[in-house]
Amino acid sequence: MAIKISRPTHRGSFPQPPAPTLFRNIAVTFVLITVVVIGIALWTSSVRAKVVVQVTKEPVSVDTVIDISPSPTSQQIKGRVVNGTFVKAKEFEVQESAAPPTPVEPTKTSGRVKIINNYSKDQPLVVNTRILTADNKLFRIDKSVNVPSGGSVEVDATSDKEGFEFEIGSGVRLIIPGLWEGLQDKIYAETITQFTGEGGISGPRRIVTADAIAKAHEELYAAALDQAKETLVLEAGADPSWESVFLVTESQKQSNAAVGQNIDMFLAQVKVTVTAVFFPKEDVAAFIRTRLSEKLPDGYHLSDIDLEKILFRLEEADDSKGTARLAVTAEAESQLTGNSPAFKKDLIVGLPVDEVIRKWSALDGVEQVDVELHPSWVHRLPSMKDKIIIEIQ
Fold it and tell me: For residue 224, what is the enclosing H or E element?
């Protein structure tokens, strides 16, 4: 007889365990994801960028005023104000004309003489009285005169005949042949001007020109200014390193000669009144730098100021109070710096290279932009700011 064994049946059953390949797939996926994340992190951290920006130098200028005072306030600069009047005079020789004048027909010559009386009595002389040079050139006075004893008179005289030979210079002694011979060495004439004809003299002449007078005054003016500078510097007692401004407040020019006058020498004089202001260069440079900096946009740097190129003009001065006001014109150069808001790294992180170059090249004051990436095969800047270096040149 056969025995049948049966298993009890249950409503529920245990799940089958997963196949070993499933665990393997999960592990591989996890490893791959980890490798990718690490790779991305390594790639991101290895990308570096250097942005080189070449900037241009932009001129910046300022026109302002500076107040000078011996006891300056916060808006003034310490300085000294002095003034003085200076006179320079000198006798100048009249140069001969470069070329003789055009030949003219000979005429009678005329000039002025001084008749001197060293005799004990007055000596009357009638018009046309003869006067004679040592080489027998005869002239006649143009009017009657009475020469006092121990004195002299001046009178015009004219040659007796026509001819260039009657052209004589000043300082020529003439006798009066009509007088008794014993009086001719006591009463005589002397030319005080050159004797010329209507057309002028035939040889080179010493004629005063406007240019000669102007050059004489120019020389004396420069000499007077030099004297003023030397004197006023000592009077002010200013530090040798201080800047100085000199202003001629008044000038007078005089000469005892007229243009066209035929003479050997003439006297010229120049008189100037000069006001001088002295002040420290460093204080002025600081003042001007402040004014220039106030005009710069944010992110710009000001270059050094060349004091030699600063222009000063004295507007007003009061030497009794020691105060003055200077008008100042100054120029300097400025350029963009890395502190400019336009060069923030936030503006370029992660951007393509060509977009960075285009964006920053369009900025005012930028001449050229170059981008260096590492590794070289990437085309975008790092997404982290600390991986970007900005160099301003």
Answer: helix 210-236
Taking the alpha carbons at both ends of the chain, their separation in whole angstroms is 110
CATH 3.40.1000 fits 81-93+207-278, yes or no: no
- Cα angle 213, 215, 217 (rounded to 5 degrees) comes to 70
The answer to whether 148 touches 117, Cβ cutoff 8 Å, is yes
Nearest to 77 by CA among 88, 69, 85: 69
Q: Are 157 and 139 in contact (CB under 8 A)?
A: yes
Domain ranges of the chain: 46-57+337-392, 81-93+207-278, 110-191
* C-beta of residue 350 within 8 angstroms of C-beta of residue 44: no
Which string of b and e fits 196-221 if b means at least 16 CB within 10 Å? bbeebbbeebbbbeeebbeebbeebb
| CATH number listed for the domain at residues 110-191 | 2.40.30
**Which whole-number Å values give the CA distances from 334 to 47, 54, 330, in the listed order?**
34, 13, 13
Most confident option among 84-93, 160-169, 259-268: 84-93
Q: What is the CA radius of gyration of the chain?
A: 50
The amino acid at residue 297 is P
CB atoms within 10 A of CB 340: 20
Whole-number percent of the chain with pLDDT over 70: 87
Distance CA 304, CA 332 (A): 7
- pLDDT at residue 253 greater than cutoff 50: yes
Paired strand residues for 197: none
DSSP letter at 303?
P
C-beta separation of 112 from 190 below 8 A: no
Phi then psi for 123, rounded to 5 degrees? -130, 105
